Amino acid sequence: MSILDLPADARPREKLLARGPSALSDTELLALLLRTGLAGRGVLALAQDLLQRFGGIAGLLQADAGSLRQVPGLGGPAKRSQLLAVLELARRAMAERLAERPVMDSAETLAHWLQMHLAGRAHEVFAVLFLDNQHRLIAMEEMFRGTLAETSVYPREVVLRALHHRAGAVVLAHNHPSGSVSPSRADKVLTQHLQAALRLVDVRVLDHFIVAPGAWVSLAQEGGL
Fold first, then answer.
1. How far apart are CA 135 and CA 100, in angstroms?
2. Which of 129, 58, 48, 123 is nearest to 87 (CA)?
């Protein structure tokens, strides 16, 4: 069904203006962003297809340009750029919140932000969040890519970056492209090695998050720190 086939007060734009954005469903909000559908398939149907394909809004926000390019109806750059811009705005908004208060005040908010950055990657990425003495975010850096093992992440490099940022603490994070977030032995050993190295320069490791699409785990909450 085309949006134009709907009663005027049921069309997403008119509904939003009359009742506010909270009155709209995820599909309607996404349809407003997409604006147009495909020949024979309206924008509401396209929006619903996207949500089903990526597992809802949270999954869609973790999508990258490559995965969006494969979706029928998003082959052109306009819609993809709009979705990617929304993703980046969401990342920046959450980063601003994390910079204003201690990141560990809400492990769930931090985990969702990390999912947006890392969960959709096709390869493993190891990142470090550098924090000030009040545990507010200074910066996040992607340090290493590839298969994660204690031999592929160099504690010296992490220590040097911590000193560069004058960090008082760090949070470690990496993704599991397999979808499972169960910590491996290598994950635990690496965490211990980094803890020992950073302790020498008086920098605390607060947590190590493992993220995947739709799932995350905190080693601190699991008793792994």
1. 10
2. 58
Q: What's the pLDDT band for 92 if we cut at 50, 70, 90?
A: confident
- 155 and 109, same domain (yes or no): yes
Strand partners, 83: none
In a domain, 214, yes or no: yes
CA distance 35 to 110: 31
User: Which tokens belong to 132?
Assistant: 């000030």
Which positions ≥6 away from 89 have C-beta within 8 Å? none
- Of residues 97, 123, 124, the one with CA closest to residue 110: 97
* Segments forming the whole domain that contains residue 68: 3-91
| Strands in 106-147 per DSSP E | 125-131, 137-145
Q: Given a cut of 50, is residue 151 above it in pLDDT?
A: no
Q: For position 82, which CATH number holds?
A: 1.10.150
What tens digit of pLDDT does each residue of 108-149 get? Answer: 888 888 988 888 787 889 999 999 999 999 999 998 877 654
